[in-house]
Amino acid sequence: MKRVSKEGREYPFSKGILASSLDITGLPLGKIYEIVEEVDDELKDAREVPSKKIKKKVREKLLERGLKKEEKYYRITRQLRYLKKPILIMMGGGPGVGKSTLSAELGHRLNITRIIGSDTVREIMRTMVSKELVPTLYESTFMTDEKVNAPFVKDRLIYGFDRQVSVVNMGIKAVIDRGIKEGLNTIINGVHLVPGYIDIEDLENCFTFQYVLEVPNIEEHMDRFVTRAKGSHRDPQRYIDRIEKIRKIQEYTIKQGKENGAKIIRNTSMEKTIREMMDDIITNLEPVMNDG
C-alpha cells in the first residue's frame, strides 16, 4: 500500500480523498476520476510519496488538458490553510435569491465548514432585545412595515427593514470578531448582510469578500420560492403574495451594495455564480500565496 508523507507524518494513499480535493475545480466526476487514475498509475511503483509530489502531478494533469483556471483553483485552495489571516465571505441579497444554497456549495469547494445564517443571529438577538424596544426584529423582513409606528416615515418597509438589519448586524459583527480572533474561515449569508451596515475597512485582520445576489426576473424569483418550499415547512404563497415587497428589499440591498463596493452577482445559474465567486476569491488570494 502506498503511503503519503506530509509534514513529518504518513497516511495511506486514498484515491477517494484525492478525488475529493479536486471538487474545487468543478469538473465532472468522471473527469476527476480520470485524473486520479492517471496519477495513481504513474505512482504505482512507489511505496512512499511526498504530498507535494502528488499535488504537482495533479496540476500537471490539469494543465495537460488545458484546464488553466481549474489548475489555479486547485493550487490556491491547497494553500488556504497556510494563510496568515482568515477568510470572511459575506453573502447578502433579498429573500429567495439562493444565498443558503450557494453558501453551502461555496463552503464545500473551499473547505469552509463555518457557515452561519443571519436568521440564526436574529433569533439570538431576539433573546437579548425585547419586542417592545424593537418590534420590527420580531417580524419577517418583508413585513416589517406592519410594525412601524412612525406616521411621518415615507417608506415604512425600508425604515422597518433598516431597524431590523441594524440590530441583527450587531450580532453579526460579534460573530465576525470571534471568527477573526480564532482564525476561522467563515461564510455568513442572509438578507441582513446589507453592505454599509458593517464597516469593511475595520476588518483588516481577515480577507473579506462581500457579495450581493440578485434574481433579475420576477417570475423566476417567484418560482424559486416554490422550489425552496419542497422538503420544508415554508409556505411559498406567503412569499409570492408579497413579492413586490421582497423585490423592493432586493433593490435596496443592491443599491447599498453599489454604494459600498460590494460585488453584485446575477444569480441565474448556480454553477455560473459559483464560478464568478471562485474567480474573484482565487484571483484576490493568489498574490498572497506561495507557489507550492
How would you summarize what this structure contains?
By secondary structure, the chain is of the alpha/beta class. The chain has eleven helices and eight strands.
Describe what this molecule looks like in 3D.
The protein is α/β, with parallel strands linked by helices. The protein folds into two domains: 3-78; 82-288, Rossmann fold (3-Layer(aba) Sandwich). It has helices spanning 15-21, 29-42, 51-64, 68-77, 99-110, 118-126, 156-182, 218-229, 236-240, 243-259, 270-285; strands at residues 3-6, 9-12, 48-50, 87-93, 114-117, 186-189, 207-214, 263-266. The strands form two sheets. It has a five-stranded parallel beta sheet, sandwiched between helices. The chain has a three-stranded mixed beta sheet with strand order 2-1-3. The longest helix has 27 residues, at 156-182.
Features:
292 residues, alpha/beta, Rossmann fold, 2 domains, five-stranded parallel sheet, three-stranded mixed sheet, 11 helices, 8 strands
